[in-house]
Structure prediction request, 145 residues.
Amino acid sequence: MEQLKNACLDIWAAGSDTTTNTITWTVLYVLHHPEVAIKMYEELDANIGGGRLITLNDKHKLSYISAVINETQRLANIVVNPFIHTTTTDVVFIPFGTGKRSCIGEGLAKTELFLFIANIYNQFEEYLQYRTVNFGCGAVRYEIS
Ligand code: HEM
Prediction:
């Protein structure tokens, strides 16, 4: 019984902060990159529309949003140096670890990240005001005003 309790605690602890922190980082990065938000909204408008919930069946239509999630996981590596093991060669993108002790929640986490992020952006619009800084020659930068 004690072992079952501890296994449940492990899964709960490993599975809650990791996913919510990744969602928080995604919102933060997108807030700082309005050009990315615009592309996310365009993809959502073209493929879904705001009137319904997004399901996993929509994943193949939302490749830009999936790429935004991947990029967030690459930038905000929330499980740094996965505990006591290391890799023998340079690796670029292993947010869920690798090998025997890699994350058992990877499938669930990817599902949660996609459903939460796609639905949040499908239901809510960006709420910060941006200032457009025009450099001429077509170069434009957005800044939070
Ligand atoms: C964005 C979300 C998540 C990230 C970035 C993440 C990352 C990781 C990483 C890097 C490891 C490997 C640690 C190591 O090498 O020793 C790991 C292990 C683990 N993760 Fe996740 N995880 C996430 C979500 C979840 C979820 C949703 C669950 C469960 C529902 C979960 C359960 C676990 C467990 C139990 C282990 C230990 C596996 C073992 O030692 O055999 N994780 N996670």
Observations:
- The longest helix spans residues 2-32.
- Residues 10-11, 14-15, 18-19, 22, 78-79, 82-83, 85, 95-97, 101-105, 108-109 surround protoporphyrin IX containing FE (CB under 6 Å).
- The chain has one domain: 2-144.
- Residues 2-144 form one domain.
